[in-house]
Amino acid sequence: MKLWSGMLSGELDKLAEEFNDSIKIDKRLVYCDIEGSIAHVEMLGKNNIISNEEKEKIITGLSLIYKNLKEGKEEVNESYEDIHTFVEARLIEEIGPVGKKMHTARSRNDQVTTDFKLYLRDECENILEDIKDYLASLIKLAEKNTKTIMPGYTHLQAAQAVTFAHHLMAYAMMGLRDIERIKFFRQRMNELPLGACALAGTTYDIDRDFVKDKLGFTSLMQNSMDAVSDRDYVIELSSIISLISIHLSRLSEELIIFSSQPYSFVRIDDKYSTGSSIMPQKKNPDMAELIRAKAARLIANTNQSMVMMKGLPLAYSKDMQEDKEGIFESIDTIRAMLKIMAGQIESLKVNKEKMLAASKEGYLNATDVADYLVGKNLSFRDAHHISARLVKYAMEKNLCLEDLPLEIYKNESDLFEEDIYQAIDLYTSVNKRDSLGGPSEKEVLRQIAYVKEKLER
């Protein structure tokens, strides 16, 4: 029997019934549904809306169903319309008609959004742990590469020398922001909707604060229509997950580029690569490519949730049944992406010699030539032009700036002396850039310590 079949027959067209049912999607809410129901029933008993004996009987039945599901003694029966219908039907099977009193002073409208918040709240903790593990892998690799010189890029053109550790710490800072977003979101969404009923509250003498405290919510939603129709929290979490996926996608793109033969800066472990069916020499960075592609799916899920809500009037509409599939997929996918990326980073092989050679070939110390002249009171604009001419000459001769004889430097300016070679040494160049956030070894070690401290909080 359908929960809503009092006035209607409850007999739907078979296809319409399949179209309407959501249990295959929302069955993962079963433990949250039981947890929320137990708190609700405890409140009903406390406030004498049901008798103490009825309360104890209902809670005993719900606890048994919870235990049986956890221990694998039974499974969710997908023939029911949704997870709430299944739990209520099983309760009535276990304890008889008194189970029908569980739903007093409650609607599926406020019940489902409460279950959903409980579930997402728990998943936030799981995602946080996965981000922290991913950041730990970045830190570990960075600590091994504080002296590893590599090109820093703008427009994907070699620009200035940095270290691989400095490059990795840029992604660590993104990860810290991801952590903060998840934490702030979890606080913001932790408002209890239960008690709003269908949309207009209830005539029963309920105690929403009691349920709030039992379920670990920090506050109550203040308007019953908003409580049942709000899905801001779904859109917000989906957006945060999308942003995490964008960060992982950018790193994946770089792993793909840096592991290709023209670069060969890094080598992705075989555990995260595949081969070609016809080209024996191929090693493809498929996991990185899939992370890059799956980010698009997560962004699409965010878009779906926003488009679903944009035209809905107050209060609840059946459209909102479509709020779960996308965010469930996004949660499952981002957790897999974080774990796989952490594994790739932990097992990554770094070709320090290739990175250094590319840094020399890219004339990344050209700015240091200009800075050297500025240090001798030449204007930066004039120094810039002199440095540019020296780079052009070196390129024509297929030489690095370090290989140009001093007389070539002096042909451009008498200010050049033997110490120019020390000034343009790449290690010197990097370690001179010790301003906050810079690539010097000392500064990168500070960044690593900063991230570690944040992760310990």
Structural account:
The structure is a single chain. This protein is mainly α and 457 residues long. The protein contains 19 helices and six strands. Strands 1-2 form a two-stranded antiparallel ribbon. Strand 1 and strand 2 form a beta hairpin. Helix 7 runs antiparallel to helix 10 and helix 10 runs parallel beside helix 12. The two termini are 51 Å apart. The mean pLDDT is 94.
Query: How would you describe the shape?
Result: elongated
Distance between the termini: 51 Å
On the 0 to 100 scale, the average pLDDT is 94
Helix content: 55-70%
- How much is the radius of gyration in Å? 30 Å
Order of the strands making up the biggest sheet: 1-2
Instruction: Please mark out the parts with pLDDT under 50 across 5 or more consecutive residues, or reply none.
Output: none
Structural class: mainly alpha
**Number of strand elements:** 6
Main sheet record: 2 strands, antiparallel
Order of helices and strands: HHHHHHEEHEHEHHEHHEHHHHHHH
- Percent of residues in β-strands: under 5%
Q: Tally the helices: what do you get?
A: 19
